[in-house]
Amino acid sequence: xxxxxxxxxxxxxxxxxxxxxxxxxxxxxxxxxxxxxxxxxxxxxxxxxxxxxxxxxxxxxxxxxxxxxxxxxxxxxxxxxxxxxxxxxxxxxxxxxxxxxxxxxxxxxxxxxxxxxxxxxxxxxxxxxxx
Amino acid sequence: xxxxxxxxxxxxxxxxxxxxxxxxxxxxxxxxxxxxxxxxxxxxxxxxxxxxxxxxxxxxxxxxxxxxxxxxxxxxxxxxxxxxxxxxxxxxxxxxxxxxxxxxxxxxxxxxxxxxxxxxxxxxxxxxxxxxxxxxxxxxxxxxxxxxxxxxxxxxxxxxxxxxxxxxxxxxxxxxxxxxxxxxxxxxxxxxxxxxxxxx
Lengths: 131, 200
Hints:
Chain A is mostly helical. Chain A is built from 5 helices and 3 strands; from the N terminus they run H-E-H-H-E-E-H-H. Chain A has helices at 2-26, 34-45, 51-63, 87-111, 115-130, and strands spanning 32-33, 67-72, 80-85.
């Protein structure tokens, strides 16, 4: 169905647009290496991100000075590249979160009239499954 | 841990291809990226021990060409995000100059470029206000040697004036051109070579 297709494309764009904030947020509590960031995003938010997307994005965040990196030796036999937010990165994450909240609130108001319909559609589906 | 020599070979081949594809990037950046991807492949494929795990990890990354294209795209995005304001550029050049010799050189060349451009512009403007004291003049000394002087004074010029009113368009065009080139040079250098707080 073409509408289904377009909805999926839109979702991909949404995820892409929020990935930068998601990565900055995952580093809020301390340093992580690339694979840890990917796992953090998967477990905390079901934001499955392909590594082929995440590493180049991390590299841009580094060259913009939003994160800094250091190589740390590990037990696994090879060093790992850890990422940490810089002060500029923390500021950017806070600013993006403010924008995100404002946006979500205004969209929430706009979408309120659509919600009952979705809730009743969901109700139908669960009833069908129960039967 | 990866034991199979075949796995090692396919990882090395993948990384070598990636390194070649990243040749546009700064050398230290490209090396760093390749080492990071190597660590990722080793970590991920040793975590779950299925038979074709190295192949699966490489497949998830995409081909070396695809991965390198993503790095280049992000690099273009970064360059596009940098400020084009001359004041911000000069401030960043100053910060860069505090760190490396390359930064100092670009900063000094930019200062010289703006000064010379501004001077040409000023001379052309003064030619309008005080035409007799401003210009490019050739003076011949008593011993036969000669010199060229570009400038202005409150005295009428001595010596033979070379450019006359041509000084106006030449000063404005070269002054503006030099200022513009200096701006482009600073922006280009920052975009290509500057890494704010590169290594933690």
